Amino acid sequence: MYTKIYKIAEDRNDTEALETLKTIGKPPYSRAKSVGLLFKVLKKYERANSTPAPSSWFVLSPDYDNNIDGDDYSFVNYVGDDKMGIQSMISTINLMRNNLDFSEINFFIHIFV
Question: What span, in angstroms and rounded, lies between the C-alpha atoms of 82 and 99?
């Protein structure tokens, strides 16, 4: 993903994105902030090249409106952060080693918003 985003930034002569990408370098990252900066550049290009989802998709159900921002907590725990002493959950997942026999079809959908 990094290489592709870097190429897009070069093609568009996007000095701001190029500076960010040069600063964080290629993954893997030891800080969640670096992953967040990579996603920030990615989202910039996604917004410019996609049709936005309908606003109705983002209406929060009252059942989940608890004023707690779980996204930051989940993100940092998923990608990890050495400075905060949080091990990356993704680094412990190896589907090829641990889960070769699936008894059902699984779809993993990751949406960058």
Answer: 27
**88 C-beta neighbours (distance < 10 Å), count:** 19
Token couple for 8 = 């897009």
Summarised one tens digit per residue, pLDDT across range 9-30 is 999 999 999 999 999 999 999 9
Closest CA to 27 of 6, 7, 46, 49: 6
Q: Give Cβ neighbours of residue 60 (< 8 Å, ≥ 6 apart).
A: none
Q: Quick one: tokens of 47? A: 């917004």
pTM reported for the whole predicted model: 0.56
DSSP state of 86: B
Is the N-terminal amide bond of 28 cis, ω within 30° of 0?
yes
